[in-house]
TrEMBL record:
The keyword Transmembrane applies. It comes from the Bacteria. The keyword Calcium does not apply. Pfam families: BPD_transp_1 (PF00528). Residues 66-270 form the ABC transmembrane type-1 domain. Belongs to the binding-protein-dependent transport system permease family. CysTW subfamily. The chain crosses the membrane at residues 66-91, 103-127, 147-174, 195-224, 251-272. It is a multi-pass membrane protein. This is ABC transporter permease. InterPro entries: MetI-like, MetI-like_sf. It is found in: Cell membrane.
Amino acid sequence: MTSSRWLGAGLVLPVTALLLLFFLAPTLLMGLMSLRNYTAGSGIGADWTLGNYFSVLSDGFYIEIMLRTLFLGLVVTLATLVLGFPLALFILRARPAVQTVTILLVIFPLLCNIVVRSFGWMVLLSPNGVVNETLESFGLISGPLDLMYNLLGVVIGLTQIYLPFMVLLLVPALQNIPADVEAAALGLKASRGRAFFTIIVPLALPGIITGSILVFVLSISALVTPRMLGGPTYKVMATQIYDEFMTNLNWPAGAALAFILTAITLGLIWGANRLAARYTKGLQA
């Protein structure tokens, strides 16, 4: 028994050491940095203070950025869910050959770098891009649409980037739903729409919650796509954290923003897990 414990400890020790070295230690250093004072022109001071957190949470500029970030994450999550649920159903009910091709098409964008995909959307959505020129050539618009450097452009880019994650998490959840449950509802004269919303969607809720958590967290922490498609004026928390560190050189404020974003993310994950646990208990009861 003792040798087994030592063997288990030996297997866990390398992973634990890597976690402590490359995750916990930098996080601790950043936490200490967020508690330092900062003076413009002088740099980081030696005094300890909570002023960075109070400044962020009491400043309308930062509050607007936080609300914009949360709204962006919500819109992207809803968009991927609305687009991903029918696609996941199609994959589940298609023939094996069609399933394979569709899954490959869903996964294929993940093989391309996110910077390249964002550049591709810039080519499509820019004022002189493919979308505007095509619409103008057909006479559908008289001038270029504002498809970039705003919420719309960022939502389009992030939805395309994170849609595969939602689909890949919805497919297993839908596979766990017994096929005869829907067939029984249809046999009892329920319409397909009613069977979908009263049976399929509730039974797939664990996958919906998991996919929504993942997409939401990835969306509110995204940096590259909001910077490229939103431009320098459309700020979210990730881009503002980058600016605080790299442009303003205010590392304490950037660290405080990073910890606030982390706290928001952990709080949302905790709340979603509580919701999923309560739902699971309700099904078991």
